[in-house]
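Input chain follows. Return structure tokens only.
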Amino acid sequence: MKKPVVDYRELRLSNINEPRFRHLKLLLGWVGYFVLYFLTENFIPRERCTPIHCRLDDLIPFNEYFAIAYCFWYVLLFFSLLYFLLYDTERFADLQTYIIVTQVVAMACYIIFPSRQDLRPEEFVRDNFFTHVMAFIYDFDTSTGVCPSLHVAYSLGIASVWRKKPDAHAAWKIFVIIAACFICVSICFVKQHSAVDAFAALPVCLLAEGIVYWKTYWKPRLQKRQTA
């Protein structure tokens, strides 16, 4: 069994600032996110939110089977963070920083420009396991605070970090990229987001990509091309 690169059994509050542990402080970003999520969900009334809609939304039918890809997002996010936390703390810091950047921008958008979507079906045509899953998701996840989509932003961030991991198997990288693409598409088919929300996440991802990887990845490659 692969051995973790850090022995977290030695973690104490007194040594959290040591180089081997200080990446854990990035997890505080989730605390800030959930606080803001609670505030925006409970103190911004739905009536103040602008409906997000485009013509493409009307062309995309509801399909409950895309719940597989939509829910796999939770698995991929948790697995990626846990794997990097145990076996590659540098990639953990990259991914968590990427997530924090997208969270900050998205929450700012939700507060400054409250948004909602009115795309969910009033009733399901079919009655099966996947429609039950979507009914459960609709119950606990409101249709406000949708633009840009964090489902898309996190997925592209996960794919970006895995793609840049040199010792990751090529087949795994391909799988993650394909999974991320299906997740991004699934948000429209399960009517959790408008296509506008997906496209709005792209510049947010570019910002996060630049902040996380400009100096260590993109700038060296750009300089190499210019001197070639």
